[in-house]
Amino acid sequence: MTKKRILVVDDEEHVRESIRLVLEKEGYEVETRENGFSALEAYRDGAFDVVLIDIILPDIDGITLYKRLKLTDPHITAIMISGVKEIETVKEALREGAYDYLIKPLKGFELLSSIKRALERRELTLMAKAYERYLEESLAKEKRELKRLFINTISTLVKLLEARDRYHRGHSERVKNYAERLSELLELSSKEKEKISIAAVLHDVGKVAIPDAILFKPGPLTEEEYETIKEHPVTGEEILRGVIDDEDILLGIRHHHERWDGLGFPDGLKGEEIPFIARVIATADTIDALRSPRAYKRSFNVQETIEALEGDKGKKLDPSLVDIAVKLLKGER
Question: Is 207 a catalytic residue?
């Protein structure tokens, strides 16, 4: 069993030595220091289970030392040592979080009793903190798993919706793929890549609320029907809010139909007002729309897609992302 480590800080050598002898006899590992700064040095070399601190020290007072040690070890268990005259100072130390105090001259049984209680308190505190961390980690893991299941469920619904129209079948997966490839070329962090991937695969989730008669209408849409279609980014954000608590992802979905020139929807954002994730999705979405066949057009080849993207540069799409998209497409040749 590992010995409990005790640090004794007192400027009087006979006090330090008498405490050390009593504690070592009981099997404790004891280190002694004569002032505050040497105690701070000792603590930097390794934490202690209990620290006994004299209120009056030659360099810094005991309360200041205790506060500094707390910065190193927030769960420090300290017992203050004082003469009767410093009792008000001791009370201040207790208010700061010190566990106990002992009055000089020290009695062996009082010292050992206080040490024992202090160790028990530290053990309980550390156990409680460990259990709290365990609960937090378990809840975080459970929340991540629920989030993953929800995203998978919604993704499946979107895929089923797209499967009903041969021109849009697999659209969200392809947009996700293009967005991820753009993210790689942009050398984004793994966290940013993950956000873009989630937002891309869910960007059209709001379409589940659009009537089939409008969503799959073979001919031109009426003005009223087009307004209904334009609601899907906001609907998508509303569906996901409360389950996905990441604002970047939610705003990426809400704003993926904004235009660089400010003529998009739903909020008419312009340029860099448009969230970055939304701009990436808009670029990926445009690539897929160009590369895929539609009822009204054939699929574009790589060169035609590049030319169309260049035409949208600074109008519909972020110019810098068009440059990245062109680089991506040239790699497909």
Answer: yes
